[in-house]
Design a protein that fits this description.
0% strand, mainly alpha, 70% helix
């Protein structure tokens, strides 16, 4: 709904400021993980801009290794999106975001509870553990302070997920006792 778009977004579209439009659309990918608002904004912009919004996909721009975490890939793709605003790159970003923030936890869907929630948390634990292993491996090769801070950050994330999983188990057990 165009009436829900920000004044700045509408002004950027009307003034044909394609760079500003791309930046706002890029930011919306992170803000609304259902991607509904992004899709509506992109449709609004592409029908009103006099300069094309979408570009041909340039796959050679992506340059990351197997050791890169999903977060690293996301960072690179978000930067590249402004340089190469293509539908394929947007879909790639949506896919990465879906892996980092798996459905339904971060997608605006009613929170899952109980054993189903625990299964989701197990998947998140697995992904976080894989990311941690990659970051530890990288920190062994590159001993910069930054790499160690990434290991610490991912370790904290892993602990938070494990604590949430434990908390959910406690709730499951309480509900079973109440029955």
């Amino acid at each position: 709904m165009p009436e829900n778009f920000t004044k700045e977004f509408k002004q950027s579209v009307e003034s044909n400021d394609v760079l500003a439009v791309k930046i706002m659309l890029k930011d919306m990918l992170i803000i609304d993980l259902t991607f509904k608002e992004f899709d509506e904004m992109a449709k609004y912009a592409e029908t009103r801009l006099t300069t094309p919004l979408w570009e041909e996909f340039k796959p050679t721009l992506s340059d990351y290794s197997e050791d890169d975490s999903l977060e690293d890939e996301l960072d690179m793709e978000m930067v590249l999106l402004i340089e190469n605003f293509s539908r394929e790159r947007v879909e790639k970003i949506k896919d990465i975001l879906g892996k980092i923030y798996p459905y339904p936890k971060k997608r605006g869907v009613k929170r899952t509870q109980g054993l189903a929630r625990i299964e989701i948390l197990k998947d998140e634990l697995d992904q976080s553990l894989k990311n941690l292993e990659k970051k530890i491996s990288r920190s062994k090769r590159d001993t910069s302070k930054y790499k160690y801070s990434e290991v610490i950050k991912e370790s904290k994330k892993l602990i938070e997920i494990a604590e949430e999983c434990q908390s959910e188990w406690v709730e499951v057990l309480k509900r079973r006792k109440q029955k």
